Amino acid sequence: MSDLVTGEAVALELRPARLPSRGLALAIDLTVALGVYLGVTAGLVAATSSLDEAAFAAVTVASFVLLLVGVPIAVETLSRGRSLGKLVCGLRVVRDDGGPIRFRHALVRGAVGAVEILGTFGVVAMIASLVSARGRRVGDVLAGTLVVRERVPKAVGGQLPPPPPWLVGRFAGVDLSGVPDEVWLAVRQYLSRMSQFDPQAGGAMGQRLAWEVARLTGAAVPEGVPAAAFLAAVVHERRSRDASRMAAGGGPGGGAGAWAGAGYGPGTGAGGGFAAPGGVGGGAAVPPAAPPAPAAPAAAPPSSPSPGAGGGSGTGFAPPG
User: Among residues 163, 179, 169, which one has the least CA distance to residue 217?
Assistant: First the structure.
């Protein structure tokens, strides 16, 4: 596992690619590139047979640089660190901080790779990868990049914590259509992994995500409510609407299946990690308005227990005072 750390002091779970997988990806890329190069060269030989020797040499060098150096650089830039071989092997080139590479990173890697891979038949790149603790070749060191594995085993757990009961339904009238998918993904990843973050950095990240969601939806974060609880309630509302639409349309995955897939299945209610305002973890929180109590049945016999008696027991959340 890599020890990459972002500016928010969050450790990234990236697995650097080792020599066997990188060698296989490189072999695939070189095989395709050389095949294209030989085909183009044969066409150029036939098309430039009337040129003199100097012109023919210039065309040959230009085709070599374009096809074996320029095309790989363009492919890595446009695909954000992928090539055909890396795609097959589940690898990607990223920056040292885990971000996507840009043209300058691909340019340095490609230019140096022409020397350490093509010029030395891969000997220099192989030695550098074996010596490096993260399997980096010389081009990666100079460009500030790292080749990582994208297809890794899924971590155990990762379920989204349920929102506090006193926040369920609080945002039923909020318009969530303005929140882009990347923000929902960031919120979901934060909620499923917030216990792994440094407390101070995780709290700051939650506040930023809460402010962003509040800005996009127009729903202010209730005073005193933890950012994580607010995000969990908004995500719960979105999942609830998606499940209702799927159930109404008769599509697969509605009802309990949709909830389980979203991390809200049975067994996730207890120990959700969000205390009611004023309770554990709530600090000096101001309790939000309690949701209306369910109406009693019209023909309930006098001896029947009152609805909601003992409700909330075993959920792990104290109702707001």
Answer: 179
Write the single-letter amino acid at 231: L
Closest CA to 97 of 22, 2, 193: 2
22-48, pLDDT tens digit by residue?
Answer: 999 999 999 999 899 889 888 888 887
pLDDT of residue 13: 56
* pLDDT one-digit tens code per residue, 184-237: 888 888 888 887 777 888 888 989 999 999 999 888 888 888 888 888 888 888
Tokens representing 294?
């369910």
Q: 124: left (phi > 0), else alpha (psi -120 to 50), else beta?
A: alpha
Strands 15-16 and 145-149 come out as antiparallel
Closest of 107, 126, 101 to residue 116, by C-alpha: 126
Look at the block and give the residue holding tokens 């100097």. Answer: 54
Q: What is the pLDDT of residues 277-291, one digit of tens each?
A: 444 333 333 344 444
Backbone φ and ψ for 11, nearest 5 degrees, come out as -75, 130
User: How many CB atoms are closer than 10 A to CB 69?
Assistant: 17
Residue 161 to residue 262: CA distance in whole angstroms: 10
Neighbour-count burial of 48, counting CB atoms closer than 10 A to its CB (0-12 exposed, 13-18 middle, 19+ buried): middle
